Amino acid sequence: MQAILTAFDEQCEELAALLDPLDETGWQRATRCEGWSVADVVLHLAQTDEVALASVQRRFVGALEELAGGLDPQRNVDDGAAAMVARERGLSNEALLTRWRSGTTALRNALAAADPHRRVEWIVGQLSTRTLATTRLAERWIHTGDVAEALGVVQAPTDRLAHIARLAWRTLPYAFARDGRELAGPVSFELQAPSGKRWHFVPDSEPATVIEGPGAELCLVAARRVAPEHTSLRGTGPDAQAVLQLVRTYA
């Protein structure tokens, strides 16, 4: 858990370094998230951090209802997030940055104090506190990239992506079930880290499908920021194509 929280802290620092010097023009720059400015992306992060904090504190449903303002809980997750942002759009940049920073600190402290194995409520159902922490790291990394791209900054990959790649690997059954499909057999990831190290995510039994290539590219595919055919990722086995189509790091 400590390694995940350290990566969480580092990712927050990377995003803060992009946000701190922004003027009004920078905050209003369009991102690759359709219809969202940099300010909207940060508002989304602040909102979802607040929901995550509520989850750790066992008040998930009430917090989600308050932020959603009556939004149907069965609604599409992406549509729900867009509606939440639209509902609170218009905060001053200073207030927004303060809200994101304070929410990040509160969530980080709550995660550090929690039992990493305790089950908590989340959008997709119950998951461990450790997995919740990893999903928050993943979303931070994804949206740091969105902000960086909007500002014309190149986001250099780091080895903290190992946590995100592992999350994508572990949640493959969920990704397949979400699409109404089942894995034909176990899957392994054999990935190259940005540092040149090797990441081996392997099942307990012999894998039926193996995915190989750069770990950073796998994370971008799982984040729905790059199409698999535009990467050097490759796979063998019955589920190779489906894994690269369905792998994800978020609800």
Describe the structure.
The chain has 251 residues and is of the alpha+beta class. The chain folds into two domains: 2-151, dinb family like domain (Four Helix Bundle (Hemerythrin (Met), subunit A), Up-down Bundle), CATH 1.20.120; 161-246, 2-Layer Sandwich (Nonspecific Lipid-transfer Protein, Chain A), CATH 3.30.1050. The chain is 55% helix and 11% strand. The protein is built from eleven helices and six strands. The strands form two sheets. Strands 4-3-5-6 form a four-stranded mixed sheet. A two-stranded antiparallel ribbon has the order 1-2. β1 (119-122) and β2 (125-128) form a beta hairpin. The longest helix has 23 residues, at 129-151. The two termini are 21 Å apart.
